[in-house]
Amino acid sequence: MDVFLELEHWAALADVSAREAAMLLCQRNPRKTSFEEAKTIMFPDLPDGHLERLDRRLSDYAAQNPRSCRSLWDWYSIAQEMKIKLAPEAVLFMGHVAKRMESDSTPTSAPVVDSASITPDWKVSKPQRYKGYTAPLHRLLAAAHRNGNPCPTARDVVEAWRNNAPAEIAKVLPDGFDYYDAKGNTKTADLEAIRKAIGRMTIAR
User: In this structure, is residue 91 part of a structural domain?
Assistant: First the structure.
């Protein structure tokens, strides 16, 4: 994970290129890493060569649908429509962007505070050992905390993994998911179990 991803900065821009969007949606910062370098980096929850394929798909879309500019949200929506797998942490962040856009469009809503300018009122606690889905869940929580977002709920996690499930997840269900245990067998985690797992990995300030 690039700790300098600056997603708040990129989400605020009106013009983001297809290649920049592909890198951001694969959790790589175009301002810190070149595309050639990013292609050599392994992505924990994405197959090999995924960045190159995503870059080609978005570039092809841009060529067929010319427009003066597109935002990161525009590219995210396009990728979702094409059912392209994205980094779960990026999906989670874009979910918060969607909530912010909805809040901004409501006249009676309170002003939205830039989450990058405040310290989250929660922090992540590293588990003593990783088993089942704890590793990808810890990565997702850590990414949300670094980006200054609210602590994800169990529902947020399920939705983030619905089209972008990490390797540890066998199948995402309406209210939970099936995951692989240490023996390769599948077990089910419902919203309550996920909520408890989040509670064990987070501490309210």
Answer: no
Q: In whole angstroms, give the CA distance from residue 65 to residue 5.
A: 28
Tell me which residue has tokens 């990129």: 10
Q: Is 95 contained in some domain? A: no
Contact residues for 173 (Cβ-Cβ < 8 A; gap 6+): 158, 188
Question: Which DSSP string do the residues of 84-138 spell out, in sequence order?
Answer: ----HHHHHHHHHHHHHHHHHT-TTSPPPP-GGGS--SEEE---SS--TTHHHHH
Q: Which uninterrupted H or E stretch holds 148?
A: none
Q: Which two tokens stand for residue 28?
A: 């790589």
Please name the residue that has the structure tokens 């003066």: 68
pTM over 0.70: no
From residue 45, give the alpha-carbon distance in Å to each of 15, 51, 67, 100, 192.
Answer: 27, 12, 31, 26, 24
Specify the length of the chain in residues.
205
Tell me the pLDDT tens digit for each residue of 13-62: 889 999 999 998 888 889 888 999 988 887 777 788 889 999 999 999 99
Which pairing describes strands 122-124 and 169-173: parallel, antiparallel, or unpaired? unpaired
Tokens found for residue 127: 């588990």
Residue 98 lies in a domain: no
CA angle 41, 44, 45 (to 5 degrees): 120
- Note down the domain range covering 12: 1-86
